[in-house]
Amino acid sequence: MFKRMRLRETTRPDNEKFFVASQWQLFRWKFLKHRLAVLSVVVLALVYLGALFAEFIAPYDPYAFQPTLVYAPPQAVYLFDEQGQFHWPPFIYPLKKTVDPVTYRPEYTEDRSRQLPLELFVQGDPYKFWGLWEGDRHLFGVRGGVYSPLGKDSLGRDLFTRIVYGSRISLSIGLIGVLIGFFSGLLIGGLAGLLGGVVDIVIMRITEIFNAVPTLPLWMALSVALPQNWTVEENYLAITIILALFGVVSGASRTVRGKFFALKEEDFVVAARLDGAGNVRLIMKYLFPNFLSHQIADLTMSIPGMILGETSLSFLGLGLQAPAISWGVLLQEGRSVKTLAENPWLFIPAVFVVVTIIAFNFVGDGVRDAADPYARI
Amino acid sequence: MLAYILKRLFLIIPVLLVVSLLSFMIIQLPPGDFVDAYIRGERGRGRTISSEEEASLRVRFGVNDPFLVQYGRWIAGIVRGDLGVSLALKESVSKIVAERLPLSALISLLSFLLVNLIAIPIGMLSATRQYSVADYFFSILGFLGMGVPQFIFAVVMLWGIYSFTGQASVGATSPEFVGQPMSMAKFLDLISHLWLPALIAAATGTAGTIRIMRANLLDEMEKPYVIVARAKGLPRRKLLYKYPFRMALNPFVVGLAGVFPGLVSGELMVSITLGIPTLAPVLLQALEMQDVETAGSLVFIISTLSVVGILVSDILLAIVDPRIRYE
Amino acid sequence: MDTLAPLLQVQGLKVHFTSKEGTVKAIDGLSFEVYPEEVLGIVGESGCGKSVTALSILNVLSRNARIVDGTILFRRGAEMIDIARLDPDGEAMRAIQGKEIAMIFQEPMTAFSPLHTIGDQIGEMIELHLLGTPSAGGTPPRAAPPPKPGLLNRPAVRRWVDDQTSAILGKVGMPNPKEILHAYPHNLSGGMRQRAMIAMGLSCNPRILIADEPTTALDVTLQAQVLRLMKQMQADYHMAIIFITHDLGVIAEMADRVVVMYLGRVAETAAVDDLFHQPRHPYTQALIRSVPKTSGPLEKLIPIEGTVPSPMDMPPGCKFHTRCPQAIPGRCDVREPELIPVAAGHAVACWLYADGGAA
């Protein structure tokens, strides 16, 4: 009863704004109320920007290795020198390497005799931005030395650089996969919903079966079945399709179909049909906008699963392989617990994975809440 | 009830059929067949195989037969419990499965129990004390649980264990029990080793389930029948357990069926990371060595484990909810 | 009837709902009385606070609702209990719920739990309130005295409760009450479910039975059956009924006295005949005009002008003035009228009747 009261329209002019607000405006207002979701959007925007401008933001070439700096730890940034003197811009101390005489492990100490100021738009490794434009300026860096904000890996490659480059694959796999899932889900679920009958039963039974099968072993087996001589790009595409096909499609089809059936019975759709609206018009005008928001929320929620799938597969060494850089590939270095315990920064890519997944979960939550016009207050 | 169980059992057949077809497709997918692989292996050992010999091998292994015939032969083998010999592992696959499947099943079952034991009370607490400190605490924990991939969780755990004990894997039993026949002591030892991987495998599912449970219960507590029950003058605690909680349990149990495949996937990652001798490391090994034959069989068996898990939760649901049985 | 002391006295009741968008004053200064063995009809449009009134009397409001002011005095023997002051979940309140005041809900499908049998849901109430109180019988007398409660006596208790439950189910005209005990709500038809609901309400011989739109969810023939049943039950059990509905026809058939509610307040209260023959409040008049007559010459139906104002921003003054054809500018839109007695047992909250009318 309370709900009915709340939704009743008023004719008072000062309230009019609320009632003429478009669906999109309502959505935005409600979404902005979900603070964690908004914060997550900002976080995601940052990592996606990083992926977009990887060449510029990363200080080095992702494949450039420095044998002298194998397993170098992350370097601290200083504002004050040892005498307590303030410096601007901030500076770093270059690393000095010694080798442990017993274990032969390299050990690094800061060379306090030299200060390398941290600079913006530094000239560094040359790159081809998006494979189109050549350049050699990087967002930040030092001259006359090496600065690795997150340390170096087993070949002395800059970890931060590799994380930024890796985000290209790790983050896009979620988006592309979800798009594949979205359109195939729309097609399959739409077919089932529209045709009904036997088609519906068969499609639904099959999607049900796919839901009952654990995805990981299938992913594992299928990614191994990919031809060995494929390029990084082909592999990437194939893995994306595998992840989408056996992760998103069945769920998406089910929700589309479910919405279709639920909406078919809705009074406003029946009314539109009785008014003589044709099938296509009915779908475009009434059904589509109605389940689109739900679909988007669902898909936002399934992006983390895709990212996780790629990361898990690559971590096991079954997904993308070495020349390719993804967060999962980077985590492979941490598969040996001994290496990890000695060089804990190798685990930093995991932090990026976790933050991204949590951010996507929050955004999905916010979208779902905002998309539901009858959400509980 | 019996009729319902039989019906569910009957419905499982098409599921297993599709799963087995998928698994068999995995075997058939890579270019080349078993004989190619065999010949490659023999060549590696310096033996050349004539084309006649190759042809006779093809006939003997039936690799030229139509897809369905080969599939039939493969399925018949599985039904007889004959999974062939793994080229990569140099061992009978049936023997590997017999040794390791119980452990896989045990971990999945343990994590299933953990999901329930943890998620139900916490979900109830969160719903009945909405917006309390505990509610916020568990909500944040839930989001973390959903955000942290199981293998990352496992690596962190292993890292901790390694820093404290110097052990680089968890294993399934203490050294003194290895190779021993099953006994109460060994079983307890097994559980004491397996609760950690089970907990990790359960983490994601638990987090999701707490959210479902909380949302369901909050929904149910506003339903008319709860107001009716309050209007009867029932003591509130009894009311909560008897009505909204029972109802909230329902979609919850339905949701549990969906949890199971996730648990099996989780068990895979966790067992591989922690080095627990379940089917998971063998599957990985077979895949790494391109032994698709073995991998296909293992995928089939692991998937079946999940399907059986779903069956069990479906039957549980029917016991809890009388409406299901009448459908 | 006026000579009797009231069984229930609602005075100046205010119930507010809080939501993110603001506070809704669902009940805003409501007063009325219920006398023993009468049928009080409460009538009004949907959203006027009828159901909230019922929930307030039973103290089972939802969590976002609060009784902010007023009293709900319930007379038990010599003492008057203020329900509005009782802890909604406390023992004192629970002793009244179901036992002294029971309620029949609008939608029997959702009012019963789908997971428990009818016998269980009615029986638990009987067990809760009647067990261990041998004299609780009253009218009509119980067939057998209740057994001693206790774990050891469990089977006997079960049997007794089942007997009581099937007896009451038989009383409301259930064809085979013994079987209905074990039925689930989805096994019953709509009419049967409502009968079961009524049986549940009656099961502990309450002194007040609140019926919130008990026939709205039923089709017309069933409506008549259920109304007849309720009348008969009232005669048998000698209880007071608060009958809540938006249907004036049902009111005319059932009620002795009527309270007309508009936006959380009483607009008019009168004996049923007075109300229909001499409606005073413009709202009551409009309400009666808007109902089609089943007999007599065909008349043009006149709907009430305008829409109910948003609960978020109520108009000042009389809440009906925005729709009232006789509103007096400068008076009706400034101050809210109090209930003014216009005849014996007839009061109306309208400035038209304040000392000499439109002065």
Account of the 3D structure:
The complex is a heterotrimer of chains A (377), B (327) and C (359). By secondary structure, chain A is mainly alpha-helical. Helices cover 58% and strands 11% of the residues of chain A. Chain B contains 14 helices and 2 strands. In chain B, a hairpin with a 4-residue loop joins strand 1 and strand 2 (91-92). The model of chain B has no long low-confidence stretch (mean pLDDT 81). Chain C has helices at 50-57, 91-96, 108-111, 118-130, 154-171, 177-180, 190-202, 220-237, 248-254, 272-277, 282-289; strands at residues 8-19, 22-34, 39-43, 65-76, 79-82, 101-104, 208-212, 240-245, 257-262, 265-271, 340-343, 346-348. In chain C, a hairpin with a 2-residue loop joins strand 9 and strand 10.
Q: Which class of secondary structure composition applies to the elements of chain B? A: mainly alpha
End-to-end CA span of chain A? 14 Å
Total beta-strand segments of chain B: 2
Q: Helix amount of chain B, in percent?
A: over 70%
Beta strand % of chain A: 5-15%
Q: List low-confidence stretches of chain A.
A: 1-18
Low-confidence stretches of chain B: none
Greatest interface (CB-CB under 8 A), with counts per chain: A-B, 42 and 48 residues
Strand content of chain B: under 5%
Query: Could you give the order of strands across the largest sheet of chain B?
Result: 1-2
* Order of adjacent strands in the largest pleated sheet of chain A: 1-2-5
Q: Outline of chain B, from the CA principal axes?
A: elongated
Reading the helices and strands of chain B in chain order gives HHHHEEHHHHHHHHHH
* Main pleated-sheet profile of chain B: 2 strands, antiparallel
Which sequence of SSEs, written as H and E, runs from N to C of chain A? HHHHHEEEEEEEHHHHHHHHHH
